[in-house]
């Protein structure tokens, strides 16, 4: 299996990361190791006795953008069925726009990229990137509290098509001549639609598609189209068990869907090794839990019941005895599950893609060690290496900037003229920013860490090489290595917020509508300072 970009957690509050060592190009610093793991704190693998895995986007890696496109199209169809104009069917999913970790402000209809404290870094209304002055009108302090009654966090990979559809709808209704824009929504005669009601309709449509709609059906009918497959997966899980550890799968998916997906992933003529007979996927796990309802599983949980694997139906009553290998269970809670498998919190390393449902909740409530899947690191590292010349330019500009100030003290009356340097820095960082995509890096906006990054605490210089994560369980995971000098702070001279640097630099408009014939992006440069999206953090011991 392609053990894509991941994060694992040793003793820190959050989570470590493992990558598959994807090839980026000749001479790339990241191709030296076949596998890479990014860690926050030290982790003794000999202390881990239980390895748990989510299924969706973890063991089962969906193909992008094919899978997101499927969800996007089905959600559009559901909205039209519920009364939305058929024109929205003309929109096509564009994977270059959405990014995880955005906040949607249901009051004003804005997608917000924020830092760890709610300070607004980028503000987008539909496909219009708002200027600094426009943001100030809506958010006087350029700050928004994470209020669940107003803000929805689009944290998961499943949220990507939803994010793009929200932007499409806001853009459509805001710019349609049939509708009049009001502060909190749009009007068409006596019909008023708030941005919150549009969002609730999208949420309802997404839930319907995932629970009652055709998403799972079409996925199962076209597994080759939507799912990646790796013959190393059986060997990977078998080696973990050979090392003496226990393995379990804990997924929110129902048994029937889980069984179809896992049967496909393990559909090889051999078993864990070439020459061994084929085995049912359930034999690779000590325990199997479906319908977990995370993050509720890590709190009060639900009733633990046994699943009839012949029909997929739940058996009568709740399960009270020990958990048996080969059987499938539904629901339960972290406390009950941990007690039944005789595990302590720190004995468990759980691997998942959902930073809140899988990682934060399991860490804070269950005390589990955590391992976060971050597939976006492929693009992040690609930009990091592919644009190394731009990073080198920024480093040189940083040195020049320092040289201009190094001989000055508090008695200096005249400031050096840094306008040309600022213009050069602005030009270079603008090119870097667009290399990440429409909304920039998942982890940074200028010199600020994004909300997503603050939750995962990824440090690009913290990595180590492993051949196979289960062969040597006594390996001590330490953060080693170092990136070039910190040049993300080279231009923080006159601005008190990253918003000044990001929104005022590029006042962008984006047209996703295929009926126009093409997607366009116009960029206008506004004089201001700018910082790099280069991943930075202080090296740790």
Automatic annotation (TrEMBL):
Gene3D superfamilies from the UniProt entry: HAD superfamily/HAD-like
InterPro entries in UniProt: HAD-like_sf, HAD-SF_hydro_IG_5-nucl, HAD_sf
Listed SUPFAM superfamilies: HAD-like (SSF56784)
Ranges annotated as biased composition (Polar residues): 532-541
Keyword Ubl conjugation: no
Biased composition, class Low complexity, residue ranges: 519-531
Protein name in UniProt: Cytosolic purine 5'-nucleotidase
High-level lineage: Eukaryota, Metazoa, Ecdysozoa, Arthropoda, Hexapoda
